[in-house]
Structure formats: C-alpha cells, structure tokens
Amino acid sequence: MTDAKPHISGLPVLRSLRRVGRLTWVEIRKLVSHKLFPVTAAVTLLVTAGLGFAAKSFTEGMESGVRFSNYSLWVVSSGIGLRIGTLLLVALGAMAMSTEATGRTLNTMLTRPIRRIEFVLAKVLSLVFATAVVVLAAALASYIVGGTVQERSPRVTWNADRPEASWKFPSYSDLIDPEYPDLLIASRAKIMGNILFGFALLVVPVLAAVSVGFLLGTLIDSTGLAIGLSVGAFVTLEATKVIPMFEEHLGRLAFNYPITRISTLMLEAGNGTVPQWHDAIVGVGVSAIYVAVCLVISVLVFCRRDITL
What are the residue ranges spanned by the domains of the chain? Predict the structure, then answer.
C-alpha cells in the first residue's frame, strides 16, 4: 500500500495570485518609470494648488462678498484638478495595452510561464493604483490650499475676557453660526468624514473613464488612435455637462457624470448641510458597471486574440 500525497486544490490558485502580485509590482514600476504617470501626478498637484491659490487671492483681493471658506476651497480646487488628472489618466489607460502591441513586447510575454489573464489583471491593478494616486494627489493638494484660509471663530462681544481663537495651519475647524457663537452647525469630524467619503466615491467614476481608455487600447493596436478616441470621448462627455439637453438625457448614463454630483455634495457638506448621497451612489453604481463591463471585455479580448511570435 502506497501513501499518496494529498492534493490541495487551492495551491494552483495561490500560485496564480502570487504571479499576479509580482506582475502587478512590475507593472507599477513600469508605470512610475513612464514619463506620463509622473507628469499626470505632478500636473494634478500643480493645477489643483495653483488654481486654488489663484481663486483665494482673487476673491480676497476684490471688494465683494464672495469668499472661499477652507472647506469650499478644498472641494472646488480638487474638482478642477481631478478633471485634468482624469484626462491624462484616460490617455495612460489607452496606452497600457496598445503600447505592448505596437512595441512587440507581447511576444516576449508569451515566452514566459505566465497566463494571459494574469498579465492583463496586473495591468488593470496597476491602473487602479494610478487612479488612486491621482485622486489622492488632488485631495492632498486642495487640502493644503484650503488650510491656508484664515478661518477664525466669531468674536464674542458680550464677554471681553474671552480671547479670540488664533489662526493656525491648517485652519479646518468646527462650523459655528456667526450670529450665535455657541451654536454648532457641524463638527469638523463630521464635515471631514463626508468630504473624505466623497473622495472615496470619486475613485469609481475616474476609474470608469480609465477603463474605457483601457478597453479601446486593448481593441486597437494603434496607440495614437486609441488615445485620440478615448480622450475625445471623455472631453465630449465633459462638454455635454454645460448643455442642458444632453445633461438631461446623459446625466444618469455617462461614466463621468457622477463626478459633478459628488463634488456638489462635498461642497454642501463643507457648508454644514447634511449631504444626500443616494443620487451620487446611484451614479457611482452606473460608473461601476462601466468598469466591470470594460474590464471584462478587455480581459476576454486579450485572452482570445491571436498574437504571433
């Protein structure tokens, strides 16, 4: 009687996951070394911070009642910077697979002991990483800009012995009613929680735009054509947001429309209003469908395509 070693069915899956992890790390390193990704992160930071400081200086230099609070400047500047970053991310998504085809590096990949699905999943995970980094860059840059607004607690006139709170960076604090200084409108923790929740939601529509570019880059071997079509689609949908007729018909169907709604709710949270996240979450669900469909089609197409050595 011979002893047979037990077969653990999970081991092949674990080995495959380890390969995906190693490939993802390689793809992230390739992404970081590529010129476009550092440029995307840097442009997002600079545009967000630059426009934020410009808006702050412009309104403070005018004799008008328009002033940015720290929370509103945080949200507004991040929204503008994130749109620029998303545009560059879409181009990066279109290049992720098309450059492999035009550069003939897919041929080298096929000679290694890895499966196609592992390779494409590593590409997808590296783009998820890039999307998260760009959203974080916009959030961080705008947070720093918003923290430069000198928000002070209202002076309590009936108690001269009570000192006025001094300004310090960052200036985010509880939202107090200016007429009734003891009345708390919204706590700093609550406002911050809602705004950070909004940033987390923003990752999905941004990733949806990137996944559309990735799909076109998988279907089209020409890098230039894939970038042109994906960027053109994103810019066209952004332009329709200012046209009421298109906004009415495409508002719930386009992958990037939730960005505007989420930014609006984040701005409401910064003003002390309790945001109603229901509509935004529905839009995020539509964006998630784009992500799922585009990535599934990309994986299926890549795994079945004819690649000659």
Answer: 35-151+167-304
